[in-house]
C-alpha cells in the first residue's frame, strides 16, 4: 500500500490528491534530473508496456531541480497522458 501525497504547489502537474476516488493498481516513482534528451523515449517505452498490462496505473516523475528543460518535457507528457504526474523540486 502506498501513501498519497497532498500538495498545493502550482509547480506540481497532476499533483496527487489524497481525496481522490481514483483506483490505482500500480504506482511507479521515477526520480529524474537533467534528462530532457531521454525522457520522451522513456515515456514511450514505459507507456507501451503499461498499456499491455491492462491495469490502472500512475507514473510519478520526481524532477530534482533539472535545469535543461526536463520539466517542460514532462509537462508535455502530462498533457498527453494525465496518468503521468510530476513533482518538481527546485534547487
UniProtKB/TrEMBL annotation:
Domain Glycosyltransferase 2-like: 27-90
MF term (GO), any: glycosyltransferase activity
Keyword Transferase: yes
Gene3D superfamilies according to UniProt: Spore Coat Polysaccharide Biosynthesis Protein SpsA, Chain A (3.90.550.10)
GO CC, one annotated term: plasma membrane
Listed PANTHER family: UNDECAPRENYL-PHOSPHATE 4-DEOXY-4-FORMAMIDO-L-ARABINOSE TRANSFERASE (PTHR48090:SF3), UNDECAPRENYL-PHOSPHATE 4-DEOXY-4-FORMAMIDO-L-ARABINOSE TRANSFERASE-RELATED (PTHR48090)
Name listed for the protein in its UniProt record: Glycosyltransferase 2-like domain-containing protein
Organism listed in the record: marine sediment metagenome
Amino acid at each position: 500500500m502506498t501513501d498519497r501525497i497532498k500538495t498545493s504547489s502550482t509547480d506540481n502537474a497532476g499533483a496527487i490528491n489524497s481525496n481522490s476516488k481514483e483506483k490505482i493498481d500500480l504506482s511507479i516513482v521515477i526520480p529524474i534530473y537533467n534528462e530532457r534528451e531521454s525522457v520522451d523515449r522513456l515515456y514511450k517505452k514505459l507507456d507501451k508496456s503499461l498499456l499491455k498490462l491492462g491495469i490502472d496505473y500512475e507514473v510519478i516523475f520526481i524532477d530534482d531541480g533539472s535545469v535543461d528543460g526536463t520539466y517542460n518535457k514532462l509537462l508535455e507528457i502530462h498533457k498527453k497522458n494525465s496518468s503521468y504526474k510530476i513533482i518538481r523540486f527546485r534547487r
